[in-house]
Amino acid sequence: MAQVLMETDLKDVKFLRRGKVRDVYETDDYFLIIATDRVSAFDVVLPNGIPDKGRVLTQISIYWFNQMKDIIENHIVATDVKDYPEILHKYKDILEGRSMLVKKAKPMPVECIVRGYLSGSGWKEYKKSGTVCGIKLPDGLVESSRLDEPIFTPSTKAEEGHDINISFDEMKNIVGEETANKLRDTSLRVYKKAREMAEKKGIIIADTKMEFGIIEGSEGQSVKGSKTEGKLILIDEVLTPDSSRFWSMKDYKPGKSQDSFDKQIVRDYLLTLDWNQTYPGPKLPDEIVEKTAARYREILGILTG
What we know:
By secondary structure, the chain is of the alpha+beta class. The protein folds into two domains: 14-104, Phosphorylase Kinase, domain 1 (2-Layer Sandwich); 107-248, ATP-grasp fold, B domain (D-amino Acid Aminotransferase, Chain A, domain 1, 2-Layer Sandwich), CATH 3.30.470.20. The chain is 28% helix and 26% strand. It is built from seven helices and 17 strands. Strand 2 and strand 3 form a beta hairpin. Helix 1 runs parallel beside helix 7 and helix 4 packs across helix 5 (177-199).
């Protein structure tokens, strides 16, 4: 079994925060984001990780950030350790392939979700009310149905626990109308371009979640919100197996849940256990870890070649 990176310790670099997957450090001018091999399910980080998961997430993000430059600028400054500040060079073994040096941006307080297919929490809501996040959809759709037009369904961004779906009007109240419109329109453009590219490679992007930030005081693609003013950029990760549902086109069959290129193997295994989905999480058996790692590597190969 390959080594897994569960947490980082860059002793002489300023540590900012530890997320479910990413550790964030700060240099004088930039943030350093490191994607570890940690895996979470049901909002619980599990005791053992998935080998190379952090590298896969980082390489897929870099690929998509580059593809979307004609739509929106992103936060990447450098992805090769030799181009990082000298203080980071001695940590090359940890950083290579799984880190990004990025601009300091203030994250928007909302998640931007685009759904092109009816799945997950959207399918659950549709069964009850015929809507997804309050958006009325046509009658007669089944689980995993393709939507005629992708829909934008924002959510709050919770530091702990679950994000909460909100209406577009609620989003306007949080970030201001002009910013809300810009976030919605940009998210839909990114999703549509990615969907078209992925379908040529035999992959369906059922839905995806994006994050945006503001570089305050910057000129360019300026937005005026109720809280901030500056240039809007794409940040964090984009169109990875942790932020999106990827399905195989050749295996796609509406009317049931689909096999995803992500940690669904982990979730399915955990649902067979007598576990109450709170800390501490159970250790994953080697077989589940290996299957999940293979799934992540497979989607990296398909999307980026």
